[in-house]
Amino acid sequence: MRDLDEEELFAHIDSGQFIDHYVDRFVQDVETDRISIYEFDRMLLAEGGEGNIPGEVIWGAIRDFSKHIGMLSDIPDDAEAIRDIQRYLQHLNANPNEQAVSAFFTYLQENYKSITTISENALIEIPDPTAPKIGDYPVVDVILYAHPDGTVMKTVEATLYSASFSVDDPDAVFDHVSQKTPSRDVEQYADDVYQATVEEFRTRLTANLIDDLDGETLTEAGYTELKEEPIPEDVNRLHAGKTASYWQKEIWNVGGVDATTGFARIWFLPDEEVGVVGPSAGDFDTDTAISRIKAELQ
Questions:
Q1: How confident is the model at residue 163 (pLDDT cuts 50, 70, 90)?
Q2: Of 163, 104, 117, 172, residue with least CA distance to 136
């Protein structure tokens, strides 16, 4: 099976589903039940900043706009270049009202060529387990969002409330939260979960594909070529819409499949030497049938 890079993967999957699966996988093995999960009230991507300001800014707000997070595409050498953004974010977190949001939005409009709403996103908040609670805990934030090109981006940050807590060092917060993750490194764990989720979706896209297939193999296995038609999206999103030759035979003629109804179906792309397996409905387990069909043709 050819390797499917991340750019191609994200072009053919639902980024919202990817984020949901990431969150489910992430929280499963963290040793605390105090994780909070949010969808951002609003998240924007500002692009096209020129001069000393960062080229891109991501801004998001949660908890009814009471917490604001900003992420920059780059950190300019000139610290003054990001001080305006820092001041806006500090003001937003200290005074989370519509006027403050409007002021920051105006700043983005005046300094960036385009502003795009990011609708697919999530925030995982993991509180520092050692901090005595007085207000909000200092937390590690795992932020996920779908870039307009479809790629799911991930970043890990710490939000501190140093005025109310004895723990106000970001390294300490990371260290404390890391002890609750399997790898004892929350950033590494976030990366591991991301790669595992990528592999999950890569497997989904390629699980019913057969490489190095030819018409002779199909004929010898008892398949009959019926017609040419586009590959349905619900059969395989990676090859959806491509015109393929359609082959089938009764599913009970596939070794290892115990069934009385249904068909083994193959959409064959001769130029790519790829077959797409898509059994019809019947009284059999679909995943088992796909595995058996692939086995007889490989």
A1: very low
A2: 163
Instruction: Give the Cβ contact number of residue 137 at 10 Å.
Output: 23
Which residue type does 227 have?
Answer: K
Q: Which distant-in-sequence residues (6+ apart) come within 8 Å of 138 by Cβ?
A: 127, 128, 131, 158, 159, 160, 161, 162, 165, 167, 168, 173
CA 219 to CA 256: how far, in whole Å? 19
Half-sphere exposure (Cβ direction) of 238: Cα atoms closer than 13 Å: 25
Close Cβ partners of 289 (under 8 Å, ≥ 6 residues apart): 251, 254, 257, 259, 262, 264, 279, 282
pLDDT digit string, tens, across residues 150-162? 999 999 998 876 4
Task: Give the sheet arrangement for strand 263-269, strand by strand.
Answer: 209-211, 274-277, 263-269, 243-250, 224-230
